[in-house]
Write a structure and sequence with these properties.
Layout (H helix, E strand, L loop, with lengths): L4 E6 L4 E8 L7 E2 L4 H5 L19 E4 L4 E4 L2 E2 H7 L2 H10 L5 H13 L5 H8 L7 H11 L13 H27 L12 H10 L10 H14 L6 H10 L5 H12 L7 H12 L5 H9 L20 H17 L4 H15 L1 H5 L7 H10 L7 H22 L27
Antiparallel strand pairs: 1-2, 2-3, 4-5, 5-6
The protein binds carboxymethyl coenzyme *A.
The site of carboxymethyl coenzyme *A (CMC) has 20 residues, from loops.
Amino acid sequence: MSERTIRISDEAAGKVLEAPVISGSEGDPTIDIAKLYKELGYFTYDPGYSVTASCSSDITFIDGAQGILRYRGYPIEQLAERSNFVEVAYLLLYGELPSATEFSEFERDITYHTMVHDQLNTFIKGFRYDAHPMAIMAGITSSLAGFYHDQMDIDDPEQRNLAAKRLIAKMPTIAAAAYRHHVGWPICYPRNSLNYCERFLDLMFSVPAEPYKVNPVAARALDLLFILHADHEQNASTSTVRLVGSTGANPYACVSAGISALWGPAHGGANEAVLRMLNEIGDVSQVGKYIDKAKDRDDPFRLMGFGHRVYKNYDPRAEIIRKACHDVLADLGVTDPLLDLAMKLEKIALEDDYFVQRKLYPNVDFYSGIIYKALGIPTSMFTVMFAIGRTVGWVSQWLEQSANPGRIGRPRQVYTGKQQRDYQAIDQRG
Ligand code: CMC
Protein backbone atom coordinates (compact mmCIF):
# COMPACT_ATOMS: atom_id res chain seq x y z
CA MET A 1 0.00 0.00 0.00
CA SER A 2 1.26 3.49 -0.79
CA GLU A 3 2.53 5.90 1.81
CA ARG A 4 1.17 8.87 -0.08
CA THR A 5 -2.34 10.06 0.72
CA ILE A 6 -4.70 12.67 -0.65
CA ARG A 7 -6.64 14.58 1.97
CA ILE A 8 -10.35 14.81 1.20
CA SER A 9 -11.97 17.13 3.72
CA ASP A 10 -15.53 18.17 4.34
CA GLU A 11 -14.80 21.31 6.30
CA ALA A 12 -18.45 22.06 7.10
CA ALA A 13 -18.86 18.65 8.74
CA GLY A 14 -15.35 18.70 10.25
CA LYS A 15 -14.51 15.34 8.69
CA VAL A 16 -11.35 14.31 6.88
CA LEU A 17 -10.32 11.24 4.91
CA GLU A 18 -6.67 10.55 4.19
CA ALA A 19 -7.22 8.54 1.01
CA PRO A 20 -4.26 6.35 0.01
CA VAL A 21 -2.77 6.88 -3.43
CA ILE A 22 -2.25 3.59 -5.22
CA SER A 23 0.54 3.35 -7.74
CA GLY A 24 0.54 0.44 -10.13
CA SER A 25 3.73 -0.77 -11.80
CA GLU A 26 3.00 1.83 -14.53
CA GLY A 27 0.29 4.36 -15.28
CA ASP A 28 -1.38 7.26 -13.53
CA PRO A 29 -1.69 7.33 -9.73
CA THR A 30 -5.11 6.36 -8.43
CA ILE A 31 -6.90 7.56 -5.30
CA ASP A 32 -8.36 4.74 -3.21
CA ILE A 33 -11.76 6.08 -2.15
CA ALA A 34 -13.15 2.79 -0.82
CA LYS A 35 -13.58 4.36 2.67
CA LEU A 36 -15.11 7.61 1.39
CA TYR A 37 -18.71 6.74 2.22
CA LYS A 38 -17.92 5.22 5.58
CA GLU A 39 -15.78 8.17 6.70
CA LEU A 40 -17.41 11.14 5.00
CA GLY A 41 -20.84 9.86 3.90
CA TYR A 42 -20.36 10.66 0.19
CA PHE A 43 -20.51 8.62 -2.98
CA THR A 44 -18.55 9.63 -6.09
CA TYR A 45 -20.20 10.45 -9.43
CA ASP A 46 -18.40 9.38 -12.61
CA PRO A 47 -20.86 8.54 -15.39
CA GLY A 48 -19.12 6.54 -18.12
CA TYR A 49 -16.37 5.67 -15.60
CA SER A 50 -13.91 8.06 -17.25
CA VAL A 51 -11.72 8.34 -14.14
CA THR A 52 -12.62 5.16 -12.28
CA ALA A 53 -10.36 2.12 -11.97
CA SER A 54 -12.73 -0.79 -11.35
CA CYS A 55 -10.05 -3.35 -10.51
CA SER A 56 -6.32 -3.92 -10.50
CA SER A 57 -4.96 -6.18 -13.20
CA ASP A 58 -1.60 -7.60 -14.36
CA ILE A 59 -2.70 -8.26 -17.93
CA THR A 60 -2.75 -5.25 -20.26
CA PHE A 61 -1.26 -1.77 -20.01
CA ILE A 62 -2.39 1.24 -22.04
CA ASP A 63 -0.94 4.73 -22.03
CA GLY A 64 -3.55 6.65 -23.99
CA ALA A 65 -1.59 9.91 -24.19
CA GLN A 66 1.43 8.24 -25.74
CA GLY A 67 -0.42 5.60 -27.76
CA ILE A 68 1.15 2.63 -25.94
CA LEU A 69 -0.39 -0.83 -25.65
CA ARG A 70 1.35 -3.79 -24.00
CA TYR A 71 0.18 -7.30 -23.19
CA ARG A 72 1.89 -8.59 -20.03
CA GLY A 73 4.63 -6.00 -20.64
CA TYR A 74 5.28 -6.88 -24.29
CA PRO A 75 4.71 -4.01 -26.78
CA ILE A 76 1.88 -4.74 -29.20
CA GLU A 77 4.18 -3.87 -32.12
CA GLN A 78 6.60 -6.69 -31.19
CA LEU A 79 3.83 -9.23 -30.68
CA ALA A 80 2.19 -8.22 -33.98
CA GLU A 81 5.44 -8.68 -35.85
CA ARG A 82 6.93 -11.73 -34.15
CA SER A 83 4.31 -13.72 -32.28
CA ASN A 84 1.15 -15.54 -33.30
CA PHE A 85 -2.37 -15.48 -31.91
CA VAL A 86 -2.23 -18.80 -30.05
CA GLU A 87 1.03 -17.78 -28.38
CA VAL A 88 -0.48 -14.40 -27.47
CA ALA A 89 -3.47 -16.25 -26.01
CA TYR A 90 -1.12 -18.27 -23.81
CA LEU A 91 0.68 -15.09 -22.76
CA LEU A 92 -2.53 -13.29 -21.83
CA LEU A 93 -3.96 -16.29 -19.99
CA TYR A 94 -0.90 -17.34 -18.02
CA GLY A 95 1.31 -14.25 -17.88
CA GLU A 96 4.46 -15.53 -19.65
CA LEU A 97 5.42 -16.53 -23.17
CA PRO A 98 5.32 -20.33 -23.46
CA SER A 99 8.32 -22.62 -23.89
CA ALA A 100 8.22 -24.76 -27.06
CA THR A 101 6.67 -27.66 -25.09
CA GLU A 102 4.14 -25.46 -23.34
CA PHE A 103 3.18 -23.95 -26.68
CA SER A 104 2.63 -27.26 -28.43
CA GLU A 105 0.60 -28.64 -25.50
CA PHE A 106 -1.53 -25.52 -25.39
CA GLU A 107 -2.05 -25.48 -29.16
CA ARG A 108 -3.00 -29.15 -29.05
CA ASP A 109 -5.50 -28.51 -26.23
CA ILE A 110 -7.10 -25.66 -28.16
CA THR A 111 -7.22 -27.78 -31.34
CA TYR A 112 -8.89 -30.71 -29.57
CA HIS A 113 -11.59 -28.51 -28.05
CA THR A 114 -12.74 -26.92 -31.32
CA MET A 115 -15.68 -29.24 -31.96
CA VAL A 116 -19.04 -28.34 -30.46
CA HIS A 117 -21.78 -30.69 -29.32
CA ASP A 118 -23.90 -31.45 -32.38
CA GLN A 119 -27.04 -30.27 -30.58
CA LEU A 120 -25.60 -26.76 -30.73
CA ASN A 121 -25.82 -26.92 -34.50
CA THR A 122 -29.53 -27.61 -34.07
CA PHE A 123 -29.77 -24.42 -31.99
CA ILE A 124 -28.05 -22.46 -34.77
CA LYS A 125 -30.47 -23.87 -37.32
CA GLY A 126 -33.29 -22.57 -35.12
CA PHE A 127 -32.32 -18.98 -35.87
CA ARG A 128 -33.86 -17.19 -38.84
CA TYR A 129 -31.54 -17.31 -41.87
CA ASP A 130 -31.09 -13.53 -41.66
CA ALA A 131 -30.35 -13.38 -37.92
CA HIS A 132 -27.38 -11.15 -37.18
CA PRO A 133 -24.41 -13.46 -36.42
CA MET A 134 -23.71 -11.52 -33.20
CA ALA A 135 -27.15 -12.52 -31.94
CA ILE A 136 -26.27 -16.14 -32.72
CA MET A 137 -22.87 -15.80 -31.05
CA ALA A 138 -24.32 -14.40 -27.83
CA GLY A 139 -27.08 -17.01 -27.71
CA ILE A 140 -24.93 -20.04 -28.51
CA THR A 141 -22.09 -18.99 -26.19
CA SER A 142 -24.48 -18.64 -23.31
CA SER A 143 -26.06 -22.01 -24.09
CA LEU A 144 -22.63 -23.74 -23.85
CA ALA A 145 -23.28 -23.63 -20.09
CA GLY A 146 -26.06 -26.15 -20.68
CA PHE A 147 -23.52 -28.64 -22.05
CA TYR A 148 -20.86 -28.42 -19.37
CA HIS A 149 -22.79 -28.01 -16.13
CA ASP A 150 -20.68 -30.69 -14.41
CA GLN A 151 -17.45 -28.87 -15.26
CA MET A 152 -18.22 -25.35 -14.22
CA ASP A 153 -17.07 -25.19 -10.64
CA ILE A 154 -15.60 -21.72 -10.69
CA ASP A 155 -13.76 -22.39 -7.42
CA ASP A 156 -11.75 -25.14 -9.12
CA PRO A 157 -8.73 -23.75 -11.06
CA GLU A 158 -8.64 -26.77 -13.38
CA GLN A 159 -12.27 -26.41 -14.35
CA ARG A 160 -11.78 -22.67 -14.86
CA ASN A 161 -8.83 -23.36 -17.13
CA LEU A 162 -10.79 -25.95 -19.09
CA ALA A 163 -13.66 -23.50 -19.62
CA ALA A 164 -11.18 -20.84 -20.77
CA LYS A 165 -9.68 -23.17 -23.38
CA ARG A 166 -13.09 -24.37 -24.51
CA LEU A 167 -14.25 -20.81 -25.11
CA ILE A 168 -11.14 -19.86 -27.11
CA ALA A 169 -11.32 -23.10 -29.12
CA LYS A 170 -15.04 -23.12 -29.90
CA MET A 171 -15.60 -19.47 -30.75
CA PRO A 172 -14.37 -19.80 -34.39
CA THR A 173 -16.42 -22.98 -34.86
CA ILE A 174 -19.58 -21.22 -33.67
CA ALA A 175 -18.80 -18.09 -35.69
CA ALA A 176 -18.33 -20.02 -38.92
CA ALA A 177 -21.49 -22.04 -38.29
CA ALA A 178 -23.45 -18.80 -37.81
CA TYR A 179 -22.15 -17.56 -41.17
CA ARG A 180 -22.90 -20.84 -42.95
CA HIS A 181 -26.40 -20.85 -41.56
CA HIS A 182 -26.91 -17.43 -43.12
CA VAL A 183 -25.66 -18.48 -46.58
CA GLY A 184 -27.35 -21.88 -46.41
CA TRP A 185 -24.21 -24.02 -46.47
CA PRO A 186 -23.94 -27.23 -44.47
CA ILE A 187 -22.10 -26.96 -41.15
CA CYS A 188 -18.39 -27.68 -41.53
CA TYR A 189 -16.39 -29.55 -38.87
CA PRO A 190 -13.00 -28.30 -37.64
CA ARG A 191 -9.87 -29.83 -39.15
CA ASN A 192 -7.16 -30.63 -36.62
CA SER A 193 -4.39 -30.59 -39.21
CA LEU A 194 -4.74 -26.82 -39.60
CA ASN A 195 -3.65 -24.04 -37.27
CA TYR A 196 -6.14 -21.74 -35.51
CA CYS A 197 -6.57 -19.18 -38.28
CA GLU A 198 -6.27 -21.62 -41.19
CA ARG A 199 -8.91 -23.75 -39.50
CA PHE A 200 -11.24 -20.80 -39.18
CA LEU A 201 -10.91 -19.91 -42.88
CA ASP A 202 -11.57 -23.56 -43.75
CA LEU A 203 -14.60 -23.63 -41.43
CA MET A 204 -15.94 -20.51 -43.13
CA PHE A 205 -15.28 -21.13 -46.79
CA SER A 206 -14.83 -24.83 -47.60
CA VAL A 207 -17.73 -26.56 -49.32
CA PRO A 208 -18.37 -30.30 -49.73
CA ALA A 209 -18.30 -29.97 -53.53
CA GLU A 210 -14.58 -29.29 -53.93
CA PRO A 211 -11.35 -29.06 -51.95
CA TYR A 212 -10.58 -25.72 -50.32
CA LYS A 213 -7.01 -24.47 -50.05
CA VAL A 214 -6.33 -21.93 -47.34
CA ASN A 215 -4.42 -18.90 -48.56
CA PRO A 216 -1.47 -18.43 -46.13
CA VAL A 217 -1.56 -14.65 -46.65
CA ALA A 218 -5.18 -14.60 -45.52
CA ALA A 219 -4.43 -16.82 -42.51
CA ARG A 220 -1.52 -14.62 -41.42
CA ALA A 221 -3.62 -11.43 -41.86
CA LEU A 222 -6.34 -12.92 -39.69
CA ASP A 223 -3.78 -13.95 -37.09
CA LEU A 224 -2.52 -10.36 -36.92
CA LEU A 225 -6.02 -8.95 -36.49
CA PHE A 226 -6.79 -11.45 -33.71
CA ILE A 227 -3.56 -10.47 -31.91
CA LEU A 228 -4.51 -6.80 -32.10
CA HIS A 229 -8.03 -7.48 -30.81
CA ALA A 230 -7.03 -9.91 -28.09
CA ASP A 231 -7.25 -7.61 -25.05
CA HIS A 232 -7.66 -3.95 -24.18
CA GLU A 233 -7.87 -3.73 -20.39
CA GLN A 234 -11.20 -2.62 -18.87
CA ASN A 235 -13.16 -1.65 -22.00
CA ALA A 236 -16.98 -1.88 -22.01
CA SER A 237 -17.24 -5.57 -22.93
CA THR A 238 -14.43 -6.69 -20.60
CA SER A 239 -15.90 -4.67 -17.74
CA THR A 240 -19.20 -6.38 -18.52
CA VAL A 241 -17.52 -9.80 -18.32
CA ARG A 242 -15.99 -8.85 -14.96
CA LEU A 243 -19.24 -7.43 -13.61
CA VAL A 244 -21.14 -10.58 -14.52
CA GLY A 245 -18.19 -12.62 -13.22
CA SER A 246 -18.37 -10.79 -9.87
CA THR A 247 -21.77 -12.40 -9.28
CA GLY A 248 -20.24 -15.88 -9.53
CA ALA A 249 -21.99 -16.56 -12.85
CA ASN A 250 -20.51 -19.27 -15.09
CA PRO A 251 -17.84 -18.32 -17.67
CA TYR A 252 -20.12 -18.93 -20.68
CA ALA A 253 -22.68 -16.47 -19.29
CA CYS A 254 -19.89 -13.95 -18.63
CA VAL A 255 -18.47 -14.17 -22.15
CA SER A 256 -21.92 -14.12 -23.72
CA ALA A 257 -22.58 -10.86 -21.86
CA GLY A 258 -19.25 -9.57 -23.21
CA ILE A 259 -20.30 -10.44 -26.76
CA SER A 260 -23.54 -8.50 -26.33
CA ALA A 261 -21.67 -5.46 -25.00
CA LEU A 262 -19.18 -5.66 -27.88
CA TRP A 263 -21.97 -5.54 -30.45
CA GLY A 264 -22.75 -1.84 -29.91
CA PRO A 265 -21.51 0.59 -32.61
CA ALA A 266 -19.59 2.67 -30.04
CA HIS A 267 -17.53 -0.47 -29.28
CA GLY A 268 -16.83 -3.52 -31.50
CA GLY A 269 -19.80 -2.82 -33.76
CA ALA A 270 -17.80 0.11 -35.12
CA ASN A 271 -15.89 -2.04 -37.64
CA GLU A 272 -19.15 -2.99 -39.34
CA ALA A 273 -20.32 0.63 -39.10
CA VAL A 274 -17.09 1.89 -40.72
CA LEU A 275 -17.63 -0.24 -43.82
CA ARG A 276 -21.25 0.85 -44.06
CA MET A 277 -20.14 4.47 -43.65
CA LEU A 278 -17.46 4.19 -46.35
CA ASN A 279 -19.99 2.64 -48.72
CA GLU A 280 -22.45 5.42 -47.93
CA ILE A 281 -19.82 8.12 -48.57
CA GLY A 282 -19.11 6.31 -51.83
CA ASP A 283 -16.62 8.69 -53.38
CA VAL A 284 -13.75 10.96 -52.28
CA SER A 285 -15.70 13.96 -53.56
CA GLN A 286 -18.22 13.38 -50.74
CA VAL A 287 -15.66 13.27 -47.91
CA GLY A 288 -15.98 16.99 -47.03
CA LYS A 289 -19.74 16.69 -46.70
CA TYR A 290 -19.43 13.80 -44.23
CA ILE A 291 -16.70 15.54 -42.23
CA ASP A 292 -19.10 18.47 -41.86
CA LYS A 293 -21.87 16.11 -40.74
CA ALA A 294 -19.56 14.58 -38.12
CA LYS A 295 -18.78 18.05 -36.77
CA ASP A 296 -22.41 19.16 -36.65
CA ARG A 297 -23.74 18.83 -33.08
CA ASP A 298 -27.32 18.61 -34.41
CA ASP A 299 -26.46 15.66 -36.65
CA PRO A 300 -26.16 12.27 -34.93
CA PHE A 301 -23.60 11.14 -37.54
CA ARG A 302 -20.16 10.35 -36.12
CA LEU A 303 -17.07 9.40 -38.01
CA MET A 304 -17.04 5.70 -37.25
CA GLY A 305 -13.62 4.25 -36.50
CA PHE A 306 -12.52 7.60 -35.08
CA GLY A 307 -12.00 8.60 -31.47
CA HIS A 308 -11.32 6.58 -28.36
CA ARG A 309 -12.01 7.00 -24.67
CA VAL A 310 -8.43 6.23 -23.70
CA TYR A 311 -6.23 7.02 -26.73
CA LYS A 312 -5.70 10.73 -27.18
CA ASN A 313 -3.05 9.85 -29.73
CA TYR A 314 -2.92 7.48 -32.69
CA ASP A 315 -4.29 4.08 -31.61
CA PRO A 316 -1.17 1.86 -31.97
CA ARG A 317 -3.36 -0.94 -33.31
CA ALA A 318 -4.69 1.34 -36.07
CA GLU A 319 -1.12 2.19 -37.08
CA ILE A 320 -0.30 -1.51 -37.49
CA ILE A 321 -3.55 -2.31 -39.28
CA ARG A 322 -3.20 0.59 -41.72
CA LYS A 323 0.17 -0.73 -42.83
CA ALA A 324 -1.10 -4.31 -42.94
CA CYS A 325 -4.03 -3.17 -45.03
CA HIS A 326 -1.73 -2.05 -47.85
CA ASP A 327 0.44 -5.18 -47.59
CA VAL A 328 -2.44 -7.66 -47.43
CA LEU A 329 -4.36 -6.10 -50.31
CA ALA A 330 -1.16 -6.06 -52.40
CA ASP A 331 -0.32 -9.69 -51.50
CA LEU A 332 -3.84 -10.84 -52.31
CA GLY A 333 -3.88 -8.80 -55.52
CA VAL A 334 -6.97 -6.90 -54.37
CA THR A 335 -7.62 -3.26 -55.20
CA ASP A 336 -10.33 -1.68 -53.14
CA PRO A 337 -11.40 1.94 -53.74
CA LEU A 338 -12.62 1.97 -50.12
CA LEU A 339 -8.98 2.00 -48.98
CA ASP A 340 -8.32 5.20 -50.95
CA LEU A 341 -11.51 6.65 -49.54
CA ALA A 342 -10.53 5.73 -45.98
CA MET A 343 -7.07 7.28 -46.40
CA LYS A 344 -8.56 10.48 -47.78
CA LEU A 345 -11.06 10.62 -44.92
CA GLU A 346 -8.28 10.10 -42.39
CA LYS A 347 -6.08 12.78 -43.96
CA ILE A 348 -8.81 15.41 -44.00
CA ALA A 349 -9.96 14.57 -40.47
CA LEU A 350 -6.44 14.69 -39.06
CA GLU A 351 -5.95 18.19 -40.49
CA ASP A 352 -9.32 19.49 -39.32
CA ASP A 353 -9.42 21.66 -36.17
CA TYR A 354 -12.47 19.84 -34.77
CA PHE A 355 -10.66 16.49 -34.74
CA VAL A 356 -7.28 17.96 -33.79
CA GLN A 357 -8.65 19.84 -30.76
CA ARG A 358 -10.56 16.79 -29.51
CA LYS A 359 -7.59 14.51 -30.20
CA LEU A 360 -9.69 12.22 -32.38
CA TYR A 361 -7.56 9.72 -34.28
CA PRO A 362 -8.40 6.56 -36.23
CA ASN A 363 -8.95 3.60 -33.91
CA VAL A 364 -8.54 -0.16 -34.36
CA ASP A 365 -11.82 -0.41 -36.25
CA PHE A 366 -11.05 2.15 -38.96
CA TYR A 367 -9.01 -0.07 -41.30
CA SER A 368 -9.75 -3.59 -40.04
CA GLY A 369 -12.94 -3.95 -42.10
CA ILE A 370 -11.06 -3.31 -45.34
CA ILE A 371 -8.80 -6.30 -44.57
CA TYR A 372 -11.75 -8.51 -43.55
CA LYS A 373 -13.49 -7.56 -46.79
CA ALA A 374 -10.39 -8.49 -48.81
CA LEU A 375 -10.42 -11.91 -47.06
CA GLY A 376 -14.00 -12.45 -48.27
CA ILE A 377 -15.55 -12.01 -44.84
CA PRO A 378 -18.95 -10.32 -45.10
CA THR A 379 -19.61 -7.04 -43.28
CA SER A 380 -22.13 -8.57 -40.87
CA MET A 381 -19.34 -10.88 -39.59
CA PHE A 382 -16.85 -8.10 -38.77
CA THR A 383 -17.86 -7.72 -35.12
CA VAL A 384 -17.89 -11.51 -34.80
CA MET A 385 -14.24 -11.47 -35.88
CA PHE A 386 -13.52 -8.95 -33.13
CA ALA A 387 -15.34 -11.24 -30.66
CA ILE A 388 -13.19 -14.25 -31.63
CA GLY A 389 -10.00 -12.33 -30.89
CA ARG A 390 -11.35 -10.61 -27.76
CA THR A 391 -12.53 -13.91 -26.26
CA VAL A 392 -8.91 -14.43 -25.22
CA GLY A 393 -8.94 -11.15 -23.30
CA TRP A 394 -12.34 -11.83 -21.75
CA VAL A 395 -11.33 -15.23 -20.45
CA SER A 396 -7.92 -13.99 -19.27
CA GLN A 397 -9.58 -11.22 -17.28
CA TRP A 398 -12.21 -13.64 -15.97
CA LEU A 399 -9.50 -16.10 -14.89
CA GLU A 400 -7.60 -13.33 -13.13
CA GLN A 401 -10.76 -12.19 -11.37
CA SER A 402 -11.89 -15.70 -10.45
CA ALA A 403 -8.51 -16.59 -8.93
CA ASN A 404 -9.01 -13.75 -6.42
CA PRO A 405 -12.73 -13.07 -6.29
CA GLY A 406 -13.60 -9.74 -4.74
CA ARG A 407 -16.96 -8.29 -3.82
CA ILE A 408 -19.88 -8.24 -6.21
CA GLY A 409 -19.76 -5.23 -8.58
CA ARG A 410 -22.52 -2.92 -7.43
CA PRO A 411 -22.36 0.77 -8.43
CA ARG A 412 -24.66 3.35 -6.83
CA GLN A 413 -26.57 6.24 -8.39
CA VAL A 414 -27.63 9.82 -7.88
CA TYR A 415 -31.39 9.43 -7.51
CA THR A 416 -33.30 12.18 -9.36
CA GLY A 417 -36.85 10.79 -9.20
CA LYS A 418 -39.87 11.68 -7.06
CA GLN A 419 -39.52 11.92 -3.32
CA GLN A 420 -41.84 9.88 -1.09
CA ARG A 421 -45.56 10.27 -1.83
CA ASP A 422 -48.68 8.35 -0.84
CA TYR A 423 -50.49 5.80 -2.97
CA GLN A 424 -53.92 6.99 -4.27
CA ALA A 425 -56.80 4.69 -5.14
CA ILE A 426 -57.48 4.70 -8.90
CA ASP A 427 -60.71 6.71 -8.61
CA GLN A 428 -58.94 9.41 -6.59
CA ARG A 429 -56.13 10.14 -9.05
CA GLY A 430 -56.33 13.58 -10.65
N1 CMC B 1 -16.92 11.69 -34.77
C1 CMC B 1 -17.21 12.97 -34.45
N2 CMC B 1 -17.06 13.50 -33.22
C2 CMC B 1 -16.59 12.69 -32.27
C3 CMC B 1 -16.28 11.34 -32.52
C4 CMC B 1 -16.46 10.84 -33.82
N3 CMC B 1 -16.17 9.57 -34.12
N4 CMC B 1 -15.85 10.75 -31.38
C5 CMC B 1 -15.89 11.71 -30.43
N5 CMC B 1 -16.34 12.88 -30.98
C6 CMC B 1 -16.46 14.17 -30.27
C7 CMC B 1 -17.67 14.17 -29.33
O1 CMC B 1 -18.83 14.62 -29.98
C8 CMC B 1 -17.19 15.10 -28.25
O2 CMC B 1 -17.30 16.41 -28.74
P1 CMC B 1 -17.68 17.64 -27.74
O3 CMC B 1 -16.56 17.70 -26.73
O4 CMC B 1 -17.79 18.84 -28.60
O5 CMC B 1 -18.99 17.25 -27.10
C9 CMC B 1 -15.70 14.79 -28.13
O6 CMC B 1 -15.33 14.30 -29.43
C10 CMC B 1 -15.36 13.76 -27.07
O7 CMC B 1 -16.12 12.58 -27.36
P2 CMC B 1 -16.86 11.68 -26.30
O8 CMC B 1 -18.10 11.15 -26.92
O9 CMC B 1 -17.00 12.42 -25.02
O10 CMC B 1 -15.79 10.55 -26.12
P3 CMC B 1 -16.03 9.15 -25.46
O11 CMC B 1 -14.75 8.78 -24.83
O12 CMC B 1 -17.23 9.15 -24.59
O13 CMC B 1 -16.36 8.17 -26.70
C11 CMC B 1 -16.06 6.74 -28.55
C12 CMC B 1 -15.40 7.39 -27.32
C13 CMC B 1 -15.10 5.72 -29.14
C14 CMC B 1 -17.34 6.04 -28.13
C15 CMC B 1 -16.35 7.84 -29.59
O14 CMC B 1 -15.16 8.46 -29.99
C16 CMC B 1 -17.11 7.29 -30.80
O15 CMC B 1 -18.34 7.19 -30.75
N6 CMC B 1 -16.38 6.92 -31.91
C17 CMC B 1 -17.02 6.32 -33.05
C18 CMC B 1 -17.29 4.85 -32.77
C19 CMC B 1 -16.03 4.02 -32.79
O16 CMC B 1 -15.20 4.13 -33.69
N7 CMC B 1 -15.90 3.13 -31.79
C20 CMC B 1 -14.79 2.19 -31.69
C21 CMC B 1 -13.91 2.50 -30.53
S1 CMC B 1 -12.34 1.61 -30.57
C22 CMC B 1 -12.70 -0.06 -30.51
C23 CMC B 1 -13.59 -0.52 -29.45
O17 CMC B 1 -13.61 -0.03 -28.33
O18 CMC B 1 -14.33 -1.45 -29.70
